[in-house]
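Input (LysR family transcriptional regulator):
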Amino acid sequence: MSETVPDLESLKLLVLVGELGSLGQAAGRLRTSQPAASKRLAALERRLHLTLVDRSRRGSHLTSEGRAVTQWAQRVLAEVDELMVGVAALRADRANDLRIAASMTLAEHFVPGWIGALQRRTPGLHASLRVTNSEHVADLALRGEIGIGFIEAPTVPARLSSQQVAKDRLAIVVHPGHPWAQRRHVVELAELAQTPLIVRELGSGTRETLDRMLERADLRTARPLLELDSNAAARSAVIAGVAPAVLSAITVQSDISAGQLVEVAIAGVDLHRTLRAVWPEGRKLVGAAEELLRVAIRACRG
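Output:
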């Protein structure tokens, strides 16, 4: 009997094919190739001795047997999700521990305050914060290595649920002696694109936001002059007069007030962005992770 039991990934694939009507889209949702998904589906059909999907040029559609199996599969997957939520709750209760990951801007200016507020309400709670870029935060959340993550990427990565927790905007900043600081008119986006800049590393939310902004404008971009993996290093490089940079406004606010940096206006570009909490899609936050999200939402609304 055990030899005929299908694996969970095959059941997820079948359910997605039924929902999306496309094997290719289902494969994309599961982050696998279409040929690999096709082989997995064929293996499932062989294991169950049933034809589950009717494949044609118009797409992939469940057969009557496929629809019946999908209904049972959905119940199985829901039970598995409930199992994992319960296990997570038991683990959280036993360890009284919350593991968090956050991108640079959130970790420097938002998350510590939220953790402090949570710990005042939950004596004995131990929280650990890992500071990395948005791409890595998303990976940690997907692998279940953290209870909750916080990112500043312009889009929500696949297979993650999200909730807005703060707002931010990017700022173009230069040394006070830079020619842009002396201008009376705004800098055009095309000129920004053609200027070698100080940028954050690939995978950071700030870098992704900048790259997407320039891509939408269909502009040819210059190669970055300097690529750095921290806001502090980027700020220091701009203050030293190395080159302009695009950074979170909250990160450079004190430097602008002190006259160490000058913010430059850019024509016709909305630099506002949303900062988000993320966790695996289909999973419910429990325990301290759920409470931390509530603290962050209240702080955002306040």
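The chain has a mean pLDDT of 89.
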